[in-house]
Design goal:
Elements: H1 2-6, H2 8-22, H3 39-48, H4 54-68, H5 72-77, H6 80-87, H7 94-109, H8 118-122, H9 129-140, H10 149-159, H11 165-174, H12 182-195, E1 228-239, E2 242-247, E3 257-258, E4 275-285, E5 288-297, H13 303-309, E6 312-315, H14 324-333
Parallel strand pairs: 1-5
Antiparallel strand pairs: 1-2, 2-3, 2-6, 4-5
Helix pairs in contact: 2-12, 3-4, 3-9, 10-12
Length: 338
């Protein structure tokens, strides 16, 4: 660690030179004023990018979200259902619920703006140490040290050692450049981790390989924990142009609507005219590997299932926010390819 810190100037020069030529400087949230006036836009990008591919965020979510909710005040005045509607397909829906709760608190406690100090930021729902530091640096132009998964991977490989969170942050602080380079430095580390120093690193292309204690050495990739298998039997019940959906209270899908679930004992052993299998599909979500079987039920034969699930009917052309699992099931109904 001492050797890396001692060679900071050359490390910074190599890293920033690489970023100037190869960094993703055209990303919209990297070209905003850093005087606090666009801290909200930075905040939205940071939350969306958590555990989500950049391409998905940029192509389908970032701009539509900001168009509908251009400021914290607009987000706070909306309903949670409307926020979840725009978040459909992005996953990890607690992020959307936290965004909404955070906006309400900012309106109430911070004059409808994000606070400009770390302690106040971390007191808001869904904002941890990394996000708070990123908002301070990228949104307010302050000197801050922080580490997302990309930065953490780069820094730990630099010294070839697994670090605790406090050790990681201490190293990050010790490697900070002069104040006017902090923004580019952090963006460069993020890009280096995302593009070069990946799980299977491309050391030959790394601008700081000469500083790295892990360069060109074998990397042990920890196998992912196997997903938990889960089988679901879903019911499609229609009434004219409406379909039955029930609001989820489970953490995975809280606030979203899903198809009623049929207990295995309620499934007939052979096809019936009033109760038949539309099809099945696989679906992966967080730690679960789901196998979903979708049944079309005649309304007259579904009373007990609808009552037990607390289902409501919604017009097919104006559905409430639904999970991707339900979207796939409805695609079967419409004879679309899953």
């Amino acid at each position: 660690m001492a050797n890396v810190v001692a060679n900071k100037p050359t490390l910074h020069k190599a890293l920033l030179s690489w970023y100037a030529s190869h960094g993703r400087q055209s990303l919209p949230w990297r070209n905003l004023p850093r005087d606090g006036s666009c801290a909200y836009e930075i905040y939205i990008s940071e939350i969306m990018l958590q555990q989500t591919q950049l391409s998905r965020v940029l192509e389908s979510y970032y701009f539509p979200f900001l168009t509908r909710f251009p400021a914290l005040s607009a987000l706070a005045e909306s309903s949670e259902q409307e926020v979840l509607h725009l978040w459909q397909g992005l996953g990890y829906y607690s992020r959307a619920r936290n965004l909404h709760a955070c906006a309400k608190l900012c309106v109430k406690q911070h004059n409808a703006k994000l606070p400009d100090d770390l302690q106040s930021l971390q007191a808001l729902p869904g904002i941890g140490a990394y996000t708070a530091g990123a908002i301070m640096c990228f949104g307010f132009g302050r000197v801050a040290h922080f580490a997302d998964s990309n930065i953490a991977r780069v820094l730990q490989r630099l010294i070839a050692k697994d670090l605790t969170q406090s050790q990681l942050l201490a190293l990050a602080e010790s490697l900070l450049p002069q104040a006017d380079k902090v923004f580019d430095y952090h963006q460069a580390l993020i890009d280096l981790g995302a593009l070069i120093c990946t799980k299977s690193p491309k050391c030959a292309s790394c601008p700081i390989a000469s500083h790295c204690a892990s360069a060109f050495k074998p990397i042990t990739i920890k196998p992912k924990a196997p997903k938990i298998p889960l089988t679901l039997h879903l019911a499609i019940c229609q009434k004219l142009d409406s379909i039955a959906l029930c609001k989820s209270s489970e953490n995975l899908y809280k606030g979203l609507y899903n198809l009623p679930i049929i207990a295995k004992a309620q499934i007939p052993q052979s096809p019936l005219p009033t109760h038949y299998l539309l099809g099945s599909f696989a679906h992966s979500y967080t730690k679960y590997a789901i196998t979903a079987h979708v049944y079309k039920l005649q309304l007259a034969n579904a009373a007990s299932i609808l009552a037990e699930s607390g289902a409501e009917f919604f017009a097919l052309d104006s559905l409430p926010p639904i999970a991707n699992l339900t979207k796939k099931a409805l695609a079967l109904l419409e004879n679309r390819k899953i």
